[in-house]
Amino acid sequence: MKKNKFTYLKSGVNIKAADSFVKFISNISTKNKGNKKFKNIGGFGSISDIPKGYKRPKIVACTDGVGTKIEIANILNKYDTIGIDLVAMSVNDLIVQGAKPLIFLDYISINKINLKKLKSLIKGIKKGCEISGCQLVGGETAEMPGTYEEGKFDIAGFSVGLVDEKKILHKKKIELNDLILAVPSSGMHSNGYSLVRKIIQKKKINLKKNNFLRKELLKPTKIYVNEVLSLLKNNLINGCANITGGGIKDNIERVIPNGLTAKIELDKIKIKKIFVWLKKNNIDESEMIKTFNCGVGFCLIVKPSNLKKIKKFFNKEYEPYLIGKICKGKQKVVFNEKINWS
Question: What is the topology classification, in CATH, of domain 171-187+222-336?
Answer without folding.
Answer: Phosphoribosyl-aminoimidazole Synthetase; Chain A, domain 2 (3.90.650)
